[in-house]
Give the backbone structure.
Amino acid sequence: MKTPTPPTRIVIVGGGAGGLELATRLGDTLGRKGRAEVTLIERGRTHFWKPHLHELAAGTVDLDVHELDYLAQSHWHGFKYRYGEMVGLDRGAREVLVGPVTDEAGDEIVPARRIGYDLLVLAIGSQVNDFGTPGVAEHAIALDSTRQADRFHRRLVNAFLRAHAQSGPLEPGQLDVAIVGAGATGVELSAELHKSTRELVSYSLDNIDPDKHIRLHLIEASPRILPALPERISAAARRMLDDLGVEVHCDARVAEVLPKAVRLADGRTIEAEMVVWAAGVKAAPFLAQLGLAVNPLNQIQVDGQLRSPDDPCIYALGDCAAAAWAGHEGRNVPPRAQAAHQQAMYLVKALRRRLAGRDSPPWRYRDFGSLVSLGEYTTVGNLMGNFVGGNLWLEGLFARWMYQSLYKMHEVALHGWWRTALTTLARLIAAQTEPRVKLH
């Protein structure tokens, strides 16, 4: 009697936007049919859409409302979830090395393991790049994870409660925030904080004058904010930030982060109670130790099919992949959510074709433009390429709807249309009975 062929083991490391979308789609199409054993390795227990981290930090989004449990998602969509962090790779044995997981008390939850694979997809994402700047690790907060964003929000609320309770006058810089890096995250966070801090004050914190006691500093080493985006978007965002009173410092390189201040290379010091570091990204350092070709940012070099040239059984997507941008000589695809989504959808088809013994055409990035949200004030950006047949400038309400639709596309990829619609409706109803900003 012929022994049945075991299903192909597809292991995905990283449950960010691209990794979770890929695991969900492959689980639905291959896992449920027994054609593949799909496994997701993720060091967190819940998923949160990373472009919303600035809203979580400002308190305008509630983590409990928007997070998704990996274990439940795996149960609903036919893949396996393995709790833990990748720490190494045995390419000879085709095994992912996963470190042990412990709780707050140091007790082991899950032991170290080896998880075998036939095809491996690395979707580990990125982390903030501090460029070796002194004091960043000790005194600044990055926004790489929900834990960091929640930590910043708690510090923000505590600073306001402390200021409200004190008997004497507020000290200079006591409620100031310095944001280093005026990319999309830094610009969006500054606008979101302008709104949320005023909401906080409106809850009877009557000894705090927002215009007098709250200063937001946005610090950028380049000549303009949003340096990676078209100049028109940068100029529109700058005008809005100026109108809001955000103090923008361009051509300002940070030399050191101090306990309650930022020292610039030109000798100036900007006092701030809290410092957020949002300047630059890089991939996890351990990726450079796997024996695969990487670039200076530790991103894995991939070919046109998103495979490592050193091992055709290993793929990479999202921020940890260095994929050449066709038509842009010498440039890689930018680390954006839309790129991770497109790569995940490509690999859904490419891996299915590979299991069927067929080759796939090269992946090509389609740039649909860029949108930057300035909270409830406005949204600016452009839509381009095949999406509109050209380059369309957007600003205001319609741009905001388009910005929000990016998150809805992600939810649809994970849940389908009906559940996304019902979840959205439930959030809208619940929002009518909740404070507009998280107060704890």
